[in-house]
Specification:
The protein has helices spanning 13-16, 32-67, 73-95, 99-128, 138-157, 162-180. The chain is mainly alpha-helical and 182 residues long. Helix 2 crosses helix 3 (73-95), helix 2 (32-67) crosses helix 4 and helix 5 runs antiparallel to helix 6. The longest helix has 36 residues, at 32-67. The chain starts with 12 loop residues before the first helix and ends with a helix.
Length: 182
């Protein structure tokens, strides 16, 4: 809906009208060839990011072990490093009052992390013969289920309030706490 039917809802107000009150033309739709090339590069770049994260994880694991923290903290640190550029860009957009851009970056980053990274990790694991695991225990599964329940309530009612946001942030902080202090 955001890219086709209701596209005009998601264009920033400063981009809708030009100086003489004429609507800007929307960008042209990419061809199928451009789309397939973009998909190919997306998969290739995700594979590279996964391999680089795997290389970096050895050093991070050494630092975590030296600090006496649990090994499960390594995954959180690597995820933070991988998501840092998108987080900074989303924060910068929000600070510049470009809320739609900020939300697009944040949601796109989350979607890419969940929807694309796990299949790429699985394929890379099979191709390279490196054994990788997602590392989710019972406590994390319960917190994930609780988060999905809260999100379902938000989506079912069609309205979100600050209380649901605080609950989700609290669940995330509890998750981080249970990783650091099991």
């Amino acid at each position: 809906m955001q890219t086709i039917r209701h596209r005009s809802y998601f264009i920033s107000p400063e981009n809708k009208l030009s100086k003489n009150n004429e609507l800007h033309k929307l960008p042209i739709k990419p061809s199928r060839k451009e789309m397939y090339i973009s998909i190919l590069f997306l998969i290739l770049c995700l594979g590279i990011v996964v391999l680089l994260a795997k290389l970096l994880s050895k050093d991070v694991e050494h630092i975590v072990k030296w600090a006496g923290a649990p090994k499960s903290l390594v995954g959180v640190i690597i995820a933070g490093i991988v998501l840092l550029p998108e987080c900074l860009a989303a924060f910068r957009a929000a600070r510049n009052n470009q809320i739609q851009t900020s939300l697009n970056l944040a949601f796109g980053s989350a979607l890419a992390s969940i929807g694309l990274s796990i299949p790429v990790i699985a394929i890379t694991s099979v191709v390279t013969g490196i054994r990788m695991s997602l590392g989710i225990d019972t406590k994390s599964t319960i917190l994930l289920g609780l988060s999905l329940f809260i999100i379902t309530i938000s989506l079912a009612t069609g309205k979100t309030n600050i209380m649901q946001g605080f609950v989700l942030i609290s669940i995330f902080l509890i998750y981080l706490f249970t990783i650091i202090i099991p």
